[in-house]
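Milestone 3.1: sequence recovery, worked example.
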């Protein structure tokens, strides 16, 4: 039979993007990142984007060292700094899976000579407190010791704040260095060996190291750190963080780091190998302490609240939970983030300090672009196969269960050229046509330009906007385009035919920009142009 019309409903998109290939993402990201490198003077960066259990984009940009020709690629090594912390938290979770520890075990149970200036804090401090960085230890990150055992003894000299204990975050590296030392006392060997045997090797992270010497002995493909000095970017050298390796000692690249990220995103599993149990992962992703605004305003300024779990920052972005960790050393900045509900994650590594003013906007640009557009055809095909033979009412019921019943109304009218009647039904009777009495803070011509720019990454020959209705901060538009079908689009392999692409969408406008869009594409019409049929059993 011809493609059933309710297939269109499956393609209601939040921030609608057709099927994204690596070339689509590259076309979108290349100019953005090249602008960052040019305007922000970032020498270089590498990025990997993960969807479900696959890397969908991986690329390096810029230079390993300014003034020299060596380029950054997906195998270039960086000091990932605090992106190490989730590794240490995971190692502790793996011990918990084995029954060797509990999150609320006291530190004294494993480090008997652990001592702080406040006796009560000494007795109360737990593994959970360490991994959520809520210890109340002041300026512990300034301790200079020859080894971690000496580090523990020197903690007795540090100031503490009982008022900040379990209410505010202090001494980030101190907390995870102590957690790493607990791992060492339990297993009787160094953290560096523990992380290698339990995470790096099982995950196939063969280009990841725990000290500078071992990395340099293997490869010269390394990113040189760069510092900002009075508006000048100057090369620096790698930081020796061996004392606090459990907090920031990993050296890796985006290819390897994406393997750890995939494991985090897939219930502790990579390539069908279970690394860590779900119960431990879930604990890591639960809020333990509120994060101060100094971090929230850098990493997620739009969030009402940011918290910290066990090794991860937690917040929301446009209704989605974001799990992330950022890292920084002199001359480097790094970011690892994922959105479980959308099954999207990313790793970004740079060779310049204080680069978060570039990395954080880039993170949100990627989420905005990809969050609801990845593998759309795959999801639609899966839903269709699941429902084949069960009847149209079951399909509609499934869509309604996802709060998308409005699409069914659209489907009844979308091919009847009755645009005004359709939206009179969906919107209030006082809905004004063509912007004239609208509260939308954008001019008509500017809005047309927005639509054109929105789809410019696709092989568009020409655009045409047929109707526009505006109400409050929403704009409803019916538009079409002639496109060259030279790539995978809407689940259809390239044919190099010229197609007519029609769509109807609602755009939300804020501060003169499109913030969100909800779109239905006339796939039926496109598929009929291609002569495609879908057989049902």
């Amino acid at each position: 039979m011809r493609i059933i019309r309710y297939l269109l409903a499956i393609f209601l998109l939040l921030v609608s993007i057709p099927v994204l290939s690596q070339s689509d993402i590259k076309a979108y990201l290349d100019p953005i990142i090249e602008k960052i490198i040019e305007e922000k003077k970032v020498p270089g960066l590498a990025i990997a984007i993960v969807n479900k259990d696959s890397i969908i984009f991986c690329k390096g940009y810029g230079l390993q060292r300014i003034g020299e020709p060596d380029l950054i690629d997906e195998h270039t090594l960086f000091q990932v700094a605090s992106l190490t912390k989730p590794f240490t938290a995971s190692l502790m979770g793996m011990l918990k899976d084995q029954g060797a520890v509990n999150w609320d075990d006291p530190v004294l149970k494993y480090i008997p000579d652990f001592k702080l200036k406040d006796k009560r804090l000494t007795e109360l401090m737990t593994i959970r407190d360490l991994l959520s960085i809520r210890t109340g230890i002041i300026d512990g990150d300034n301790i200079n010791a020859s080894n971690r055992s000496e580090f523990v003894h020197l903690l007795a000299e540090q100031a503490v704040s009982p008022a900040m204990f379990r209410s505010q975050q202090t001494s980030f590296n101190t907390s995870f260095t102590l957690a790493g030392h607990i791992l060492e006392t339990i297993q009787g060997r160094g953290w560096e060996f523990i992380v290698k045997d339990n995470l790096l090797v099982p995950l196939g992270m063969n280009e990841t190291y725990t000290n500078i010497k071992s990395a340099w002995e293997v490869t010269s493909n390394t990113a040189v750190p760069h510092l900002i000095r009075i508006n000048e970017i100057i090369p620096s050298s790698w930081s020796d963080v061996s004392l606090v390796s459990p907090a920031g000692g990993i050296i890796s690249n985006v290819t390897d780091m994406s393997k750890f990220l995939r494991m985090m995103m897939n219930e502790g599993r990579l390539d069908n190998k279970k690394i860590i149990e779900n119960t431990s992962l879930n604990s890591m992703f639960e809020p333990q302490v509120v994060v101060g605004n100094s971090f929230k305003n850098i990493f997620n300024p739009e969030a009402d609240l940011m918290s910290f779990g066990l090794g991860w920052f937690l917040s929301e972005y446009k209704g989605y939970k974001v799990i992330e960790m950022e890292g920084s050393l002199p001359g480097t900045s790094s970011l690892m983030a994922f959105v479980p509900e959308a099954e999207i994650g990313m790793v970004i590594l740079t060779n310049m300090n204080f680069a978060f003013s570039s990395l954080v906007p880039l993170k949100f640009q990627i989420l905005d672009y990809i969050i609801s557009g990845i593998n759309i055809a795959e999801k639609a095909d899966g839903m269709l196969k699941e429902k084949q033979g069960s009847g149209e009412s079951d399909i509609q019921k499934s869509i309604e269960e996802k709060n998308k019943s409005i699409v069914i109304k659209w489907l009844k009218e979308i091919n009847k050229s009755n645009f005004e009647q359709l939206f009179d039904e969906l919107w209030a009777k006082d809905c004004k046509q063509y912007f004239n009495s609208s509260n939308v803070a954008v001019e008509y011509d500017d809005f047309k330009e927005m639509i054109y720019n929105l789809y410019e990454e696709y092989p568009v020959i020409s655009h045409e906007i047929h109707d526009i209705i505006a109400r409050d901060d929403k704009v409803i538009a019916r538009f079409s385009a002639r496109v060259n079908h030279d790539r995978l689009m809407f689940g259809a392999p390239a044919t190099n035919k010229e197609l007519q692409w029609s769509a109807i969408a609602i755009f939300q406008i804020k501060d003169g920009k499109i913030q969100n869009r909800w779109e239905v594409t006339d796939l039926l019409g496109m598929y009929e142009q291609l002569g495609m049929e879908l057989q049902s059993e």
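DSSP finds 19 helices and 20 strands in the chain. The first helix runs from residue 22 to 39.
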